[in-house]
Write a structure and sequence with these properties.
The protein is an all-alpha fold. It is 69% helix and 0% strand. It has 3 helices and no strands. Helix 1 packs antiparallel against helix 2.
Length: 80
Amino acid sequence: MEILYFTIVGAALYLGSEWILDRVEQARGARFPHRSLIFFAIIFCLAMVAFSAIERLTTPDTPPMPAAETVPGIPPVIQK
């Protein structure tokens, strides 16, 4: 299921980055000479934030480590 989230967000990031770059170029009044590098910078920054958020939201929390007294297989003398 996580792959589906990454794919959908990746497509949205592509379209969103293109839209942002077009708006910046319209405000500037001309196209950038190295447009692909600027596009890469925009999509890279957005992807790092979005994919990190997906990872945090889809990864289950790890349970806490059990107390030393409840670890099976270790004699009580070594635990204390």
